[in-house]
Design a protein that fits this description.
Helix content is 53%, strand content 9%. By secondary structure, it is α/β, with parallel strands linked by helices. It has a four-stranded parallel β-sheet. Helix 1 (16-27) links the parallel strand 1 and strand 2. Helix 2 (50-62) packs antiparallel against helix 5 (108-127).
Length: 170
Amino acid sequence: MSIKVSKFGGTSLADATQIRKVIDILRSDAERRFVVPSAPGKRHADDEKITDLLLACHRMAENGEDTTDIFGYICGRYDRIASDLGLKADLSSEYELIARSLKRGASRDYLASRGEYLCGRLLALALNWEFVDPAEVILFDARGRFDPDCTHEKLSARLRGARNAVIPGF
């Protein structure tokens, strides 16, 4: 059997309706064993992408502005998706960790990557697939440069026993 890795962008994951389509696609082909989700995108023309909202949060935090409202809106989007999918998902500890990291000066990339991370958590739960945190398998050298060889080794070892997995991508 071959292995297919599927990547879905933000529009495909914008809300529960779109996510159900992704789930149907993944379940329609047993060779689709691994999926790399993006963060939820726009639901309509006047909407905002989650990644853009997270980057706005980062800018606001850097400027000493209060991020409570915008971050609450982001969390609400995920909570709505979970509810609309009928998931019993409690992401509050994840939200708290992100909020604390934001207050402590988390990097722009870290904050932006939380969109994919949270979407991956929900998608894994909806599919009943294993969740693989990219922080565990994407490696960098001492100078902060991506290390493809070590990453390949670590990721291969991590996925070796997994039938299916969701691996967020940023």
